[in-house]
Write a structure and sequence with these properties.
Blueprint (H helix, E strand, L loop, with lengths): L2 H14 L19 E4 L4 E3 L15 E5 L12 H4 L2 H8 L4 E7 L22 E7 L4 H8 L5 E4 L4 E3 L6 H12 L4 H8 L8 E4 L6 H7 L1 E9 L8 E8 L2 E7 L2 E10 L4 E4 L6 E5 L7 E5 L3 H15 L5 E3 L20 E3 L24 E3 L20 E3 L20 E3 L20 E3 L20 E3 L7 E3 H6 L5 E3 L7 E3 L11 E3 L7 E4 L7 E3 L7 E5 L5 E3 L9 E3 L7 E3 L10 H5 L5 E3 L10 H4 L6 E3 L19 E3 L12 H4 L5 E3 L23 E3 L9 H4 L8 E3 L10 H4 L7 E3 L20 E3 L19 E3 L20 E3 L10 H6 L5 E5 L6 H6 L4 E8 L8 E6 L8 E7 L5 H20 L3 H15 L3 H4 L1 E12 L2 E13 L3 E6 L2 E4 L10 H9 L20 E2 L12 E6 L4 E7 L1 H6 L2 H10 L3 H14 L6 E8 L110 E7 L18 E4 L2 E7 ...
Parallel strand pairs: 1-3, 4-8, 16-17, 17-18, 18-19, 19-20, 20-21, 21-22, 22-24, 23-25, 24-26, 26-28, 27-29, 28-30, 29-31, 30-32, 32-33, 33-34, 34-35, 35-36, 36-37, 37-38, 38-39, 39-40, 40-41, 41-42, 42-43
Antiparallel strand pairs: 1-2, 3-5, 4-5, 6-7, 6-8, 9-10, 9-15, 10-11, 11-12, 13-14, 14-15, 43-62, 44-54, 45-46, 46-47, 47-48, 47-51, 48-52, 49-50, 49-53, 53-54, 55-57, 56-57, 58-59, 58-63, 60-61
Helix pairs in contact: 5-6, 17-18, 22-23
């Protein structure tokens, strides 16, 4: 699209005719019409004239029409060719100017996903309208001769804009509400086409065929009335709308008599004697019948499907919710039998033939739902529908209720939640039949007095209002109210000024208020009380009828209840300040559940434990030193005593508590456990036993034999030297076994007797022999990481159920090709990447940090968490770490993992202010989620370690940003320092107030609209403005006292406190083992969700910085050009059918596509030159500036853990149908970094998408030379490219250069989320789950094109063209290099990311080549290029 020349020509033409650029509008011509450009194969400029008022000279509007194929990463056109220089100059003149994208009406309301998987068929014209924030819809329509504009938020409903609304101002307000603060950035973001997934404007109402089918079907068909053959067939207009079939008496006319056939309860049957014919019959003894013959099968199926839904209804219900309706179809009024009409989530208007004013025509209407319609005013017309018994007007921004509401004498249910009401009319008191009144989330400051007259109302629903005090005497006067809901108000006190008893209230909910004391002794018949999350110091209740008390998260030292609550069954006093249990607790005769976790209890009363009613006792996280003996048999079923100071358990525990099924005594000081029975015969029913983090030894194994029903056994982090083989064989019902963190040298072979075992976790031991578990029929997960395995003995076949095998951290383990072939069906195989870098080289270029991480799926069938870890980030000694928790979806975490590093790299070019670049990183990532982020979301945490930009020689700083519930904790001098903010409604008072002010409905479990407990997330844009993507940002300077950083999701820190997490990591120096221990502890403490932990070990020293001062530069920080490898002239140009190469992901692309835009094949011979800069003196903390921000597997910088803590890799399976290397994979020695599985080849590559750069490293090793020599054994000195994987070995590491063809793969649902692997249960497992690991995904797509195919030849733009002004300097630098040094390829200026170039509004001349992109001197590796083929 030659937009630049086109716009310049238009500008010149306009200037000749007197055109000019105005102050209030863009590109204003003196002639009374806009200049419209159309881009296509033959771009032309047209100019017309329009007479009359409203010419755009006054409004300053310019329309640029684009007819584009939405098959690129940006969906429309690039920022550069979108506008000409004239438009950009005009936009830069004022930030109140901008661009509005108008889409045509035939585009589907759900925008197609950007990326290669999007359809390449041309859509209707996209018009780019340049205007100002003062431009109204009326002015835009007058300019375009249009009839209106429409707006769609988050791919959901489409609303017609009022003539006075200002589209550009709406766009700017939306971006400001998201979190963008800078006006220039808001202007730039508004022009980004990716924003269409969040907010989109239409010039015409979009057509939705599915919606039309469900609201109205009509056509002219052959119709016959009655079953008699005497009736003739005739063509008639037939309509199916609402609950009726409507047949016109005259063809093509609706003016005559209309025959109405009610269908509810009737029949719709297929007529077999006639093709495409349906018989419609009404219900009742005098049923009528119509035969309708359709012309096409599609019409027949459509009518049959819709009519079948109607006849199956038991009531005359019409559901038109969520259809973006402004009026109901006129034909709906023929359905006079309608009793229930649902118009929720529309934009209903009062006027029009189908407007609200006509609803009284429904003479039998009983239920009307008008919630979420943006009414603004109570529609008085509904007060004329006297038959109404249920009316829902929630979430309509209503300010008042009219007095006409008193006309609805039959009304029983009235919902007015989520409005702005502060009072009710007295006429409402006349509704004698009203029994339910919803007033939650309004602005009431007191209980309305009119409720005293509503004698049938038994529940006061006023959650989320502004009530500050509650007078019990007021409730006493409302003798009909039994259930009071006043949660989420501003209650400071509950007054009881008189001695009058409040006898009618049985249920009271006072959660999430500001109460410091509560005396409800006068509420004598109270049965259920909720008062969690207040600040209660005293609580006094009447116990006559009390059944349930929930008073957790307060400051209660005791609770006063009189008399003894003999009806009490459930008591929750967790997270208080109880030092002892009140005496009345032991006297309760019916108590079944008692939760006193997280208190200060030092003992449990013997009477309590010997209660004959108690079934569940939770007393963890206290100071208990002993448990009283059991005197008799008790019905206890669940006992939780974790995190206490217990040295022993009662001897009679298991044979007195015969119903005990769950016991958790983790994190105590137990050195033994009681026997299961006093004799050999055991009656134990125990199913789950958690003994983690005690002092148990191997003698405890004999005591477990009696628990023959045991299904889950966690005995991790004890002092086991062995596990008795004979004892393990008797636990035949065992399903999950965790033996991690002990001193086991082997797992008994008798584990093969546990036929139901599906999970074995035994990491962090001294196991040398692989256990005999691969013959178990139900085994799914085996974790033997961080052990001392040397070999694996395998059976002839493996169980098909095995999904994950973790063998990382076994430094001596060597696997043969035969072994790997047997593992070929495993979904996730984790192995260490062997490093060929010497220790000296590793230490010379090491970073001051390394990391490890762990993920556990828990009882979920999919892993919804992911980790981003880059030890070397950007162009210096920097690092980036992040964790993402999708709660119940894995798509968004994987997308964020793949792209968020790129986005941060881009944002660092635009700003050096931490709060700005971190905030914009989150907001841009939110936008890049595209369609995936409309309904799905994730908590996110991003940590960036860097020097202060103003002082590169200073200490490091740590900038942390987060949304949701992911958290970061820094260990400083042995103490935890929280760095993040938990954005959940329960933990943040200000966020709760913000969400309440925006009139969100918060359910009883404190979730926004019942969806999420988080008030800030990336994604879930349909919950805007309640849930926002703006993060919390905090920068902490690092010092020598900082030991490590812990990152974890909600599930981790709900179970493991900050202090315990710090102590745990301090005891385990290996970051990966520490992360695994954190996850294992959380799981043993009772967590069932996905758990994620990352540990970053910090080695910040006082080493003085000796770097030369940086050269001042006015150029912005910018990622270097993409380094690509160009093929030699003798390379065969044969297309690759099944080989492939893996790319970095383009940071400019939408997150929905997760694709690369540039790639090249690698050469078969070594280049001969390299770009280098002048020598620069660097210190150990600040090594030479490198060309690579990507950490490659096995690279230097791992500290003392070589090859262990690197970036997140990806493993892709390359299918090969032919082998041309003449080698047998069984005989060939395994190549490091490459795993051959018969016809498959697994190569570890890096999926992360920071600026693709190559790092300096160690020189070529002897093994590298051997590989080089082996690679030249091909005929004629050439290497075949077909069915091969191109590998570039740098420092013994693997790099894969990207390919372009990924469109086919992206279309597959199984690869739409980070090219993950689709499992049989519907989940997607990404091919990477551990840093520096090879993960074998067996069922990776076997495509002959796309992601797994290298380009047949290199594209010309993949070569870097050195500007003439720098040629001489480059030649001089190259002469100084050793002839053995490989050539570093250079990329063209065109391939430099747009973030390096001018701002979006600037001119498009290329910038000078940045000098800081050239690597400095030092030990430069020999860059090798080898081609490895797999034998069939």
């Amino acid at each position: 699209m030659a937009m630049e020349d086109e716009d310049n020509n238009a500008a010149a033409s306009a200037k000749q005719k007197g055109g000019d650029v105005g102050d209030d509008g863009a590109c204003i011509d003196r002639q009374p019409d806009a200049v419209a450009h159309r881009a296509g194969l033959n771009p032309t400029a047209g100019r017309g004239s329009r007479s009359g008022p409203g010419s755009h000279a006054a409004t300053g509007i310019r329309v640029l029409k684009r007819n584009m194929k939405r098959n690129g990463s940006r969906g429309c056109v690039t920022r550069k060719n979108r506008f000409g220089s004239r438009e950009r100059d005009w936009l830069k003149g004022d930030t109140q100017r901008g661009c509005v994208c108008l889409y045509g009406g035939t585009v589907d309301p759900q925008p197609p996903a950007s990326g290669p998987q999007a359809s390449s068929t041309p859509q209707t014209d996209l018009q780019l309208v340049l205007c100002s924030t003062t431009t109204t819809v009326e002015e835009l329509c007058a300019q375009r001769d249009g009839h209106g504009l429409y707006v769609q938020l988050h791919g959901d409903l489409v609303r017609r804009l009022d003539p006075t609304e200002r589209p550009l101002q709406m766009l700017y307000d939306y971006l400001a509400a998201m979190g963008y603060a800078e006006p220039v950035r808001v202007q730039q973001e508004a022009a980004n086409s990716d924003l269409s997934c969040l907010i989109r404007f239409y010039s015409e109402p979009p057509v939705n065929a599915d919606q039309q089918e469900r609201t109205l079907l009509k056509g002219i068909f052959n119709v016959r009335k009655g079953k008699s053959q005497l009736h003739k067939w005739a063509e008639r207009q037939v309509i199916l709308c609402g609950t009726c079939l409507i047949v016109a008496s005259v063809k093509d006319s609706l003016t005559g008599k209309m025959h109405i056939l009610p269908l509810v309860g009737g029949k719709v049957e297929e007529v077999k004697r006639r093709q495409h014919c349906l018989m419609f019959s009404s219900a009742g003894s005098q049923a009528q019948t119509y035969f309708v013959n359709f012309d096409a099968l599609a019409d027949y199926q459509r009518w049959h499907r819709q009519a079948s839904k109607v006849v199956s209804q038991t009531v005359s219900l019409v559901d038109l919710s969520c259809y973006s309706l402004e009026v109901v179809p006129e034909y709906l009024f023929y359905s006079q039998d309608i009793t229930h009409l649902n118009l929720r989530h529309n934009f209903m208007s009062l006027q029009g033939p189908g407007g609200l004013l006509n609803l009284p025509k429904f003479s039998q209407l009983k239920s009307l739902n008008l919630s979420h319609n943006r009414l603004g005013v109570f529609p008085e017309c509904v007060c004329e529908i006297l038959t109404l018994t249920e009316l829902n007007l929630s979430c309509n921004s209503l300010l008042t209720v009219p007095v006409q509401i008193g006309n609805l004498q039959s009304l029983q249910i009235l919902s007015l939640d989520g409005n702005h009401l502060s009072s009710l009319p007295e006429d409402l008191g006349g509704l004698s039949q009203l029994n339910s009144l919803g007033l939650s989330f309004n602005n009431f400051s007191h209980i309305p007095a009119v409720l005293e007259r509503l004698s049938a109302v038994d529940k006061l629903a006023m959650a989320g209002n502004t009530v500050e005090s509650l007078e019990l005497c007021t409730l006493a006067r409302m003798s009909h109210l039994k259930n009071i809901d006043l949660r989420l108000n501003r209650l400071h006190c509950v007054k009881s000024e008189s001695l009058e008893a409040v006898s009618q209230v049985t249920q009271l909910d006072l959660r999430d208020n500001c109460l410091d004391s509560l005396d409800l002794s006068s509420v004598c018949n109270l049965e259920t009380l909720h008062c969690q999350r207040n600040q209660l110091g005293t609580l006094t209740l009447s116990g006559f009828t009390l059944r349930m008390l929930h008073a957790s998260s307060n400051r209660l030292p005791t609770v006063n209840i009189y008399p003894v609550p003999n009806q009490l069954t459930s008591l929750d006093l967790s997270q208080n300040l109880l030092e002892y249990l009140p005496d009345w607790v032991c006297d309760c005769r019916k108590i079944e559940m008692l939760d006193v976790t997280h208190n200060l209890l030092s003992e449990l009363p013997s009477r309590l434990l010997n209660s004959l009613s108690l079934r569940k006792l939770l007393a963890g996280n206290n100071c208990l030193q002993r448990v009283p003996d059991l005197l008799d048999h008790i019905p206890l079923e669940a006992l939780d005593l974790q995190h206490n100071k217990l040295a022993e358990l009662p001897e009679s525990l298991f044979y007195k508590a015969l119903n005990l099924k769950y016991l958790n005594v983790s994190a105590n000081a137990l050195d033994s456990i009681p026997p299961s029975s006093p004799s050999e015969e055991s009656l134990s029913t125990l199913q789950e036993l958690y003994l983690t983090a005690n002092h148990l030894k191997e003698n405890c194994g004999a005591l477990l034999v009696g628990h023959q029903n045991l299904r889950v056994l966690h005995i991790a982090y004890n002092q086991l030297l062995s596990f008795p083989a004979s004892k393990l064989s008797k636990l035949e019902m065992l399903e999950e076994l965790n033996l991690s963190g002990n001193k086991l040298k082997a797992i008994p072979s008798t584990v093969s007797s546990c036929k139901r075992l599906h999970t074995l976790i035994a990491h962090s031991n001294h196991i040398t022999v692989f256990p005999e578990i691969l013959n178990l029929p139900e085994i799914k997960l085996v974790d033997l990481s961080c052990n001392e395995l040397t070999e694996i003995q395998l059976p002839d076949s493996l169980p098909s159920t095995l999904q994950e095998l973790d063998l990382t951290g076994n430094s001596s383990l060597m696997l043969e090709h035969k072994t790997l072939n047997l593992f070929s069906h495993i979904t996730t195989l984790k192995l260490d990447q062997k490093s060929t870098t010497s220790v000296g080289d590793s230490q010379s270029g090491s970073t001051p940090w390394n990391h490890g991480y762990s993920e556990m799926s828990g009882q979920r069938n999919k892993l919804c968490v992911s980790v981003l870890a880059v030890d070397r980030f950007g162009d210096g000694v920097e690092a980036c770490y992040g964790i993402f928790d999708g709660d119940r979806n894995e798509e968004v975490p994987r997308l964020l993992q793949c792209t968020m590093g790129d986005v941060l790299c881009e944002e660092l070019q635009h700003s050096s202010i931490d709060s700005v670049y971190m905030c914009n990183t989150f907001l841009t990532s939110h936008r890049k989620l595209g369609m995936a982020g409309q309904k799905l979301g994730a908590s996110a945490l991003l940590c960036y370690i860097h020097h202060e930009p103003s002082d590169p020689g200073s200490y490091f700083s740590l900038t942390v940003a987060n949304v949701g519930t992911c958290q970061a904790v820094l260990c400083r001098d042995g103490r935890p320092v929280p760095l993040s903010k938990v954005y959940s409604l329960e933990n943040s008072t200000e966020e709760m107030e913000r969400v309440k002010l925006s009139k969100a409905i918060i359910t009883e479990d404190n979730k926004v609209s019942g969806v999420t407990c988080c008030s800030r997330l990336l994604g879930c844009s349909y919950l805007s403005p309640w849930v926002l993507p703006k993060p919390w940002v905090h920068t902490e300077p690092l010092c020598t006292k900082d030991e490590f950083l812990i990152l974890g999701n909600r599930a981790l820190f709900e179970r493991v406190s900050y202090q315990e997490a710090v102590c745990t990591v301090q005891a385990v120096r290996d970051p990966r083992a520490a992360a695994k221990k954190l996850c294992s502890l959380a799981q043993s403490y009772g967590c069932k969700d996905n758990i994620e932990a990352a540990v970053v070990s910090l080695h910040i020293t006082e080493d003085s910085c000796t770097c030369e001062p940086p050269v001042p530069s006015t150029e912005p920080r910018c990622p270097p050009p993409i380094a690509t490898v160009t093929p030699g002239p003798t390379d065969p140009v044969a297309p690759s059918s099944n080989g492939g190469i893996v790319s970095e992901c383009n940071g400019e692309a939408s997150t929905s596509e997760v694709g690369g835009e540039a790639g090249s094949t690698a050469p078969d011979e070594h280049p001969s030159s390299v770009l280098a800069s002048r020598p620069e003196r660097r210190c150990s903390l600040h090594p030479a500036t490198t060309l690579c921000g990507i950490m490659v597997p096995g690279a230097v910088g791992a500290g003392t853990h070589l090859g262990l803590f690197q970036r997140q890799p990806s493993c892709t399976t390359f299918s090969s149908n032919h082998s041309d290397n003449g080698l047998d994979s069984d005989d060939e020695a395994p190549l490091e970094g490459v795993i051959s599985n018969g016809s498959k080849l697994e190569v570890e590559v890096d999926i992360h998408c920071c600026a693709f750069q190559l790092r300096s490293g160690a020189p070529e090793s002897s093994k590298d030379l051997e590989l080089k020599k082996r690679g030249s054994d091909y005929p004629n000195g050439k290497m075949r490219r077909q069915n091969s994987v191109v590998v570039s070995a740098t420092n013994g590491c693997l790099l894969a250069v990207c390919g372009r063809e990924i469109a086919d793969l992206k279309k597959s649902p199984s690869t739409s989320s980070l090219f993950g692997k689709k499992l049989s249960n519907g989940s997607v497992v990404a091919p990477e789950d551990s840093h520096n690991l090879i993960e074998v995904a067996l069922e990776a797509p076997k495509k002959k094109s796309g992601y797994f195919t290298a380009p047949a030849q290199q594209d010309p733009e993949d070569q870097l063209i050195v500007p003439p002004s720098l040629e001489q300097e480059v030649r001089e630098q190259l002469r100084g290099q050793s002839p053995l040094v490989s050539a570093l390829p250079v990329a063209p200026l065109a391939s430099i990311p747009p973030s390096c170039k001018d701002s979006v509004w600037d001119h498009s001349q290329p910038p000078a080549f940045p000098s800081h992109l050239v690597p400095g001197p030092g030990p430069v590796p020999l860059l090798q290029h080898e081609v490895y083929d797999t034998a069939l």
